[in-house]
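Posting for a labmate who doesn't have an account.
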Amino acid sequence: MTYQPFFEFGATRKSRWTVTSDHAANTVPDFVNNGDLGLDPADMSRHIAYDIGAAGVAQALGELLGGPVICSNFSRLVIDPNRGSDDPTLLMKLYDGTIIPANRHAGPDELEQRMMACYRPYHSALDTLMKRCNDPVLLSIHSFTPQLKGRPWRPWEVGVLYAEDDRLACALIDILHTDTDLTIGDNEPYRGYLPGDAVDTHALKDGHLNVLIELRNDLIETEADQKAWASRLAPLLKKALSHVGS
């Protein structure tokens, strides 16, 4: 069976929204160290390998918003599609205190193989989805661990991330504060911009509306939770978009 580096859902949907899950899977393709990064299965099930629950939320949001969804089919530890092509963290050798054995001595040839098989096909497909219409909106769904090793507990249920184009993000943050009792991270738990990241590449550079949502992963572990959060967020996202317009 030919390896497929991404999966699309609802590719013919017509709304402005394109929904992504950059870190959807913990898959390690066979061509990467025979499908094994050298980590215990427990580590491959942690947030270091993928964004727990994000794919389910993204797929449910795509249905509710009437837009296509693209999900990666490779672990962020294989190569990180939410990094620029020249980012030094594109191929992580250490993450949250865990050494990644199969990446430790990976050189330029190994990086190029992963770029060609995983990274570039994912971004090419996302580019095609974003060019379906003249005024697309990029919604990127991620999840975060409640606590990194040796670090404080993260209190936010939802983080809304953005860069210099904060039109949609600020509208959404205002609505979340007004319409919910959630603890909202304003560009938390991460800063919402890395040069050449997925939002930069597919939205910011072309002036398209965008927002990146981070959900705390203990809240979206089950399919029921993922659908519930999508149902909660979809009307708020629609409301935010209506406030911004274009």
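Reply:
Got it, the structure tokens are right above this. The chain has one domain: 6-244.
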